[in-house]
Amino acid sequence: VAIANGKSAFAYVSMAENVALRAGNRGEFERLLRAALAIEGAPQALTLANLVARKRAALLLGRVDQLFPAR
Fold first, then answer.
1. Helices 47-62 and 26-38: crossing angle, nearest 10°?
2. Mean pLDDT by groups of 10 residues along the chain of 71 residues
3. What single-letter DSSP state applies at residue 45?
4. What's the pTM?
């Protein structure tokens, strides 16, 4: 996230899936995915990657109840 100055949606989605999800931290998972969806003004080199990552973030947010079932 820091390397891309917070402009890489992929970095947020990756952290959500590989850190927050594995740790069972739903709040952090949702926060990271929402951050990915909120990115604007990214460099042109990140446009396609951000589009794909934002679609993945939206898909994951739509499945959050399945990924974090009630105990």
1. 140
2. 67 95 97 93 77 95 94 72
3. G
4. 0.86
